[in-house]
Design a protein that fits this description.
homodimer; 372 residues; alpha/beta; four-stranded antiparallel beta sheet; 12 helices
């Protein structure tokens, strides 16, 4: 019989690609007493979560809720509910997360037109326009608003305007974007947008906020085939969130109560103030890290402030440096993914971590390690 | 701008079909400081969770972990990773949850042989044997160990022995069974078993413990088609849990640390002692509730102790009684599903609620309401 002691986590400053640090009030909220998922009190909390998510997404979309899984479950929800076998979809692939959308769409039976761009570059809106002229029947165009693997911020407004008067939907991954950089779901004509809780919202991982426009909902309602996933089937799940409260699956109560507190904090700060804070702190870090012989891997003019892919010169062993940063300074940053593995860091200054103090602590630690 | 106050849950005694009450130590564990999902400390916690799950499942299966979603996500993980389009599967359908397995298997492209039985009855092992003689090519036989919609406990050993020497796998839903009634994954030759955290484990909803036998893992490794789900793809997820720790999706840290504490409590009590406690308390309730003019809807000899479907006579308005129980006594029980909707309660005495005190409080409250 294994005798396992209690889990007592070490103190960490979380400056990687997520999870970001969580405020004690949010941690406390998710440890409040358990209640049932059909309890009238909890259904009221779920309604408040949906209402607050609408504010953070800047949308009037009725179908706005938190998927019972992490950000990737939000991605899969968006894709599998819109795709029917044989559909064509156009997907921008300029990093890991665009690649996942393409992979998931293929599993759902779609033919994928992948618009590949070098890592660190945006997908030019004119490339989307050209692809759409070739395939005007596309079910959706998918772009990643905030590419967590490269630190690129994708412009969305032009493509949104282009798609608004067509039958093609606009699907957007804003896992790392939401509450960190401007995102205007309604004004920009975005049809399906999903996010994660553990980035700029500052809530533990486990839920995926998602919103569907009436145009997207109509596509779901007019499907001729069954959605391939039972767990993520929007037509069933929406009955629980905004319909007759029919039981589908047991909602993750603690996580939703935690998200409730996190959203309260976001709205208390104010969304624009939060965007401005992320912008200022991120630019400060990006300016100073370049003095340390590091480069920024995202193209100039399209850099996310909250997530920076930092390229190290060959002489630097990024893995060793990163382990020492964790072991000696208690600071977590992320390693590079894919093309950037072994030569880059991913530094997140998200939510509670978007402060001057965090930037100072990280730069001091880096200086200490590079000197040592 | 909506001004939302903090969420302060009411005091509830949770005696429904789940979530069950959560011990304060488990609630406290999931509010401990956030750490990264690739932090060496957290990977150690994940290893301990897997080791403790093996003890609770009574298995040596290497591939044992917690799916990042609720019990239904465990169901979908089991089904979609085993089914390839065109496969035949045999599914016992004697309540809601067998029906879900059949539905999910169809979405994954399977031809389903549904063994339908009246609600409240088991699926006779000889019916499974007969179906298997008709379809010896079946990819799996699926049975629900603990039917949460009816309170039926399905015998598994005979079917397990029958399948052990065939190429057909044995898939078992033990969402409500695990840690409440005997379950012997290895001894009974069960190939894939999934559960939920919010039942007899006494942990908040949000994770689905799951285990795969080497025979099941071999079937996954020999698939000729891609799994239809990206999020639940076992071949990718197992690299995080037991392989090279490759990033797939961000694990729900808080929930896993909570499960860690819940499993410690289960093993501290001892699995056999926990089964015995559930058995004794459940029988006590079932004996006494029949004195209140109520009937037990599960067939005699196959009643789960931890979950009882209680049939009320027509004169009783179960919905009104249930609402008054919540409002006046702070006790939650569940309503009937499907066939039993409007005429039955589902009473759970699971985990922390499997005590004489809970039975007394519930019976006293029922007496008070029936008198009033």
């Amino acid at each position: 019989m294994v005798q396992v002691p209690p889990a007592n986590p070490p103190e960490r400053l979380l400056l990687g690609p997520g999870p970001s640090p969580v405020h004690p009030d949010v941690l406390a909220a998710q440890s409040r007493a358990m209640v049932g998922h059909l309890d009238p009190w909890f259904l009221g909390v779920a309604d408040e979560v949906a209402a607050m998510l609408r504010q953070v997404f800047r949308t009037e979309n009725q179908l706005t809720y938190a998927v019972s899984g992490t950000g990737s479950a939000g991605m899969e929800t968006a894709v599998v509910n819109l795709v029917e076998p044989g559909d064509t979809v156009i997907v921008g692939v300029n990093g890991v997360f665009g690649g996942r959308i393409a992979d998931t769409a293929r599993r759902a039976g779609a033919e994928v037109v992948a618009l590949e761009e070098p890592w660190g570059r945006i997908v030019p809106p004119e490339r989307v326009a050209a692809a759409l002229r070739q395939r005007p029947d596309a079910r959706f165009v998918a772009l990643v608003h905030a590419e967590t693997s490269t630190g690129v911020q994708q412009p969305l407004e032009e493509v949104g305007a282009l798609l608004a008067d067509t039958d093609t939907l606009f699907l957007v991954d804003s896992v790392t974007g939401l509450a960190g950089v401007p995102l205007e779901v309604d004004d920009w004509h975005l049809d399906v947008v999903y996010s994660g809780t553990q980035k700029c919202l500052g809530v533990p991982p486990g839920l995926a906020p998602i919103t569907f426009s009436p145009k997207a909902e109509a596509v779901i309602d007019q499907r001729s085939s069954t959605v391939r996933s039972w767990y993520l089937d929007v037509a069933a799940v929406r009955r629980y969130w905004s319909g007759d409260r029919a039981y589908h699956h047991t909602a993750p109560i603690s996580a939703i109560v935690g998200l409730h507190e996190g959203l309260r904090r976001v709205l208390d700060e104010g969304l624009e103030a939060r965007w401005a804070r992320h912008a200022e702190v991120g630019r400060l870090f990006q300016e100073h890290i370049q003095d340390r012989d590091a480069t920024l891997l995202a193209q100039q003019g399209h850099r996310l402030p909250q997530l920076t892919a930092v390229g190290w010169p060959e002489a630097v062993d990024e893995g060793k440096l990163r382990r020492r940063l964790l072991d000696e300074h208690g600071i977590e940053v992320g390693g590079g993914l894919g093309t950037f593995a072994g030569s880059a860091w991913r530094v997140g200054l998200m939510g509670e971590a978007a402060t001057h103090a965090c930037v100072d602590r990280l730069l001091d630690a880096v200086d200490d390690l590079l000197d040592g």
